[in-house]
Here is the input.
Amino acid sequence: MIHKRLTYTILFLFVSLFSFAQSATERFLTPSDTLNKPRRNAVIISEASLAGITLIGLNQLWYVDYERSKFHTINDNKEWLQMDKMGHVFTSYQMGKFGADLLNWIGVSEKNQLIYGSTLGFGFLTAVEVLDGFSEEWGFSWGDIIANASGTGLYVGQQLLWNEQRILLKFSYHETMYASQRSDKLGTGFFERVLKDYNGQTYWLSLNLSSFFKEKHIPKWLNVAFGYGADGMLSGVSDENNMDFPSYDRYRQYYFSLDVDLSKIKTNSRLLRSVFEVFNTIKIPFPTLEINKNRCVFHLFYI
Here is the structure.
């Protein structure tokens, strides 16, 4: 009997603590109706510290191996079949969306969310671009700046036009055979290759159907997605290939698929909504039609 009471007592305490923790988490994640100064101060300090540490880290770990130079610009718009530019658009969009959501959580007005939050990605990536400008290996790229502005504009434009994100920018990645052949350019480990192997990257414009066709009986979470990728690249431009590496046919890839907008899935849990927001940056695998200059391919589940 004593053991049974002890078991019930422990179980009761565990459930109570779990419920309290869950309730505290829900309160913490709930956006404030008015300006929450403690949250604001915490966000300002955290963002400033993180940005400073990141830029210093990039300067010491990334640029230190290359010679410094006077500030200069480069025209790299023809490199990697513009896949690197798509990466800039995606990063700027996602950072801007995160910045606006963060200010919404603080309790900042919608106007200031757009002014100070959605420009987070553009501001940070511009600072990185300035560092590139002082590196002999790279240079300040106006093409990158335009791509950064496009990502920010995609978010801001939709908020001004519809007050919601009907068109999401998403990402997917699959391993390719090219990375092992040119690891210095395309990365050595999985996570490095996700960032550097443009052959395995796909960027998607994911359109929410119910947002555009409100009178139709369409599931609110159902999207159609249009993707862009490229293949056959061991270097930025084709004439960089030499006898040390195989020469492949470089070509663009266009995709059509279905997708899921996780933010449209109904739930009362703030924690679950936050998890959905994180994973909503990734394209859900679905049957996909690929069109390129060589052929038309159907993928049962394209990643």
Q: What stands out?
A: Strands lie at 73-74, 140-141, 167-173, 201-208, 222-231, 251-260, 286-292, 296-302. The mean pLDDT is 85. The first strand starts at residue 73 and ends at 74. The radius of gyration is 23 Å.
